[in-house]
Amino acid sequence: MIIWLNGASGVGKTTVANELLDLLPGSVLYDPELVGAGLRAMLPKERLAEVDDLTDLPSWRRMVVDTAAALLTEVPGPLVAPMTLLDQAHRDEIFGGLAARRIPVQHFLLHVDETFLRARIDQRASVEGEAVRGRCLANLPRYDAALAWLSADTHPLEASRLTPRQAATLLAEAARRGDGTRQIVQTPAPRAETLAAGVLLFDDQDRVLLVDPTYKPGWEFPGGVVEAGEPPARAAVREVAEELGLRLTHDLPLLVVDWEPPRPGHYGGLRLLFDGGRLDADRLREVLLPGAELRDWRFVDEEEATTLLSPGRLARLRGALRARAEGRPLNLEAGVPVGV
Length: 340
What we know:
By secondary structure, the chain is α/β, with parallel strands linked by helices.
């Protein structure tokens, strides 16, 4: 179990976390900042200069998950992690990785009004130096922008007028009740190349339906990994039924076969996209998202898709749209058509 204590920089998460250790038997402080410190010492300064925050490093997010899993082989837990996490895609990647390792997460938000927060930042700066004040204040706009999704994803604690011990006592009680528990689908991490099948579903404006998973970053197409011995088209139909509650009864024309090359941390494999056709208003009323797996869905045109999809998925979408327009499937390698 991990108790993730989120909040603005300077709000006092680590102080409250240390108080919480006294109230939860067996708990251990897990500070992801130490993972960042290690990366800061090892990575070239040129690479560090490319990111605004260490949480923007894919290696940090992966190591946070791996380190937590390793720690829980040594101690019973829970791990108490005081760490600001403001990017929802980063949250999905980390919490999804923990879920894949069967590590439950309780997500709490330590919130104080800005007047109190600035006072706490001033107090901390008086001890640790002015550089701390600058970092904390620079973080405030990102925190304000993230409050909408944080409020929906966490169990919030208003701590403006609470001492660290009072806040920890309330958090301990909430943790024992199971508050803040995130229900995330436990998708095992791939151990080899995979075959995955997705479906493009369209509305009457020929916009394509995308879904927002809770267990990994970014938007994608409905679909998933083909199970051993399962026909890919049948897998695509199964995934649409599981993810959206839609039963596709017609044959699905193949649009693209895309070979995704391996890269560090990813095995790659074959990615198939099928044409699921248009959905009318009656079918759209049937959509029912599984909360542990998908957060949202929407129809997007190609321009909006560029802001939601990863480069690889976007290239695959463009290939599929071309195949649909030409009435024939396309063979892609890393999103680039071959043999045409």
